[in-house]
Amino acid sequence: MKKAADLLQFEVGDKSIIGVDAAKNDGSVYRYQIRGIAAPDAYLIAAAPDLYDALSDTLKQGLSLDTIKKARSALARARGETP
Question: Where are the domains of the chain?
Answer without folding.
Answer: 4-37, 40-78
